[in-house]
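I'll show a record.
***
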Amino acid sequence: MSTQYNSIQAPYDSYRKASIALLERNQVRSLLSASISGARVLELACGSGFYTHHFLDWGAKSVVAADISSAMLEQASRGITVDPSRVKFIEQDCSKAQEIDGGGFDLAFGAWFLNYAATREELVEMFRLIAMNLKEGGRFVGITCPPTADPAAFVQAERDLRLAPQGSGGLLCSINYEVKDGVYFHVFADTEAGEVNFDCWHLLKRVYEEAAREGGMNGVLEWSATEVTDEFIRTREGGASVEELESYRKVPHYGMLVVGK
């Protein structure tokens, strides 16, 4: 996996204040509400700790948070207000199948992790890591690009619907080029803390599903996409316009994949 996040830690954290990031957080909390309490959590590609801190606050017994970016991990380790024995940060390439901290986790979580697989084979390797580190009956929750049979058309539809400079919470996506199973695309944002620039992949829905099975995740597999409640539109937390918030109901910004071992 790339270390491209080393140079964009502060601008990326600024994006995490946007309405779309808060919608994502709310949806994750709802999804985990019945299982997070007392869970041993493995967080893959933890970034600057946006979810690490939330998992601890939401009742996880412990969190092992791994990322390839030293700058992101340094930021993630700041501001921990709980018993420090409940959280461990590890600098690691999460794209290579290997046991982490003894494995046996109740829950594995990856926010914007699977989208760094360029090929089906790389995606299988990620799922092997996930399966290797979950206990039997454990599950993986991943935030990634929305499920689609046409990634190129999706990226263009999002770009056409949420125009510059606002985009999706300030993020603007454009296709670099098409690949065998999807597209390689660029993400840009101009934030108050500087520019965000990085590249990743949006692969076919069936490729994610096939890779999960081949990687050893054979439990129930379910998808969902960006959910915007009427209450969120009323409060407009994060400051997005009503137009932007309603647009996510037409063309989502993210997908959520949940699959059991």
Residues 45 and 113 are 6 Å apart (CA to CA). Strands lie at 40-44, 62-67, 87-91, 105-111, 134-144, 172-179, 182-191, 194-203, 221-225, 255-260. The mean pLDDT is 93. The first strand starts at residue 40 and ends at 44.
